[in-house]
Amino acid sequence: HDSRRELVELAAQQPATITPRIEASTLTFEVPRLYPLAFGTDGADATATARVLAHFALSLHEHEREATEPTDTLVRLRAAAPVRPGLQEHAREVERALNAFESASEHHLLHGDLGLGSTVAQADSLAVVTGDHLCWGPREFDIGWLLGDLLEHAHLRGRDESEREFAREVGRVFLSEYRKAAEHLDVELVHSFLVCRLLSYVLDAAGVSPAGFDAILPLADRTESWLEELREGERG
Question: Quick one: 26 exposed, middle or buried, by C-beta within 10 A (0-12, 13-18, 19+)?
Fold first, then answer.
């Protein structure tokens, strides 16, 4: 509880453009739209959505501290990846992600579960919501987690090509905007956390139905091409 209180207090020390609100142990950040924004996947402005998310992540990551323990999610993956059928080949990426928590020279305040599902459109702002996921760690964690969420959206949740393109464009613009403002970003580590995001949801889906497991797991083999696709858009 002390650690949780510390995180909430620090997260509340945002620039005036980001307003935190705490209700029922949930921390909500209201981020001004800054750009014309119709959020959602029906007629949404993917570029504006990505810029708002990048603005939020960069502001949150301004807080730094020394190395800390890995998140509970990664600890769970460490135990499952070597022994769970279908996950073994990704164990190396999980270990790289875990080691980053020990070797990184700087740890940043992280959202911990950044994705389209953690955002809610409001009249004049985009609310970014987090519960117990706030943590300290390499900033690549949040970035990889978001890109993994977008990959899943593009290939599993997108109802048509326009929604899949929405996810791709959010990823391209987010990565570009973040890298413009931030110093060196470890793209290989971003990839490792991207893989971990998918494996985490694979484990959760397995607890619900084999079909969910079988649907998400193949996406872990597409992470390199997905990240390269987004970076090509960035370079373009």
Answer: exposed
| CA–CA separation, 158 and 133 (whole Å) | 25
Give CA separation, 158 vs 108, 120, 135, 167, 215, in Å.
31, 18, 29, 8, 14
Largest CA distance in the chain: 48
Q: Write phi, then psi, for 24 (nearest 5 degrees).
A: 50, 50
Contacting residues for 88 by C-beta, under 8 A, at least 6 apart: 81, 82
The answer to whether the CB of 176 falls within 8 A of the CB of 53 is no
Q: How far is CA 174 from the centre of its chain?
A: 11
pTM: 0.83
Element (H, E) at 31: strand 26-32
185-225: per-residue pLDDT in tens? 999 999 999 999 999 999 888 877 777 788 889 999 999 99
CA-wise closest residue to 118 among 107, 106, 108, 129: 129
Which ranges constitute the DSSP H helices of 81-222? Answer: 91-103, 140-152, 161-181, 187-206, 210-216
* pLDDT, position 3: 56
Q: Nearest CA to 115 among 141, 76, 81?
A: 141
User: Among 93, 114, 106, which Cα is nearest to 193's?
Assistant: 93
The tokens of 109 are what? Answer: 């305040």
Q: CA 217 to CA 199: how far, in whole Å?
A: 7
27 bridge partner residues: 22, 130
Beta strands in 34-92 (DSSP E): 64-65
Contact at 8 Å (CB) between 193 and 145? yes
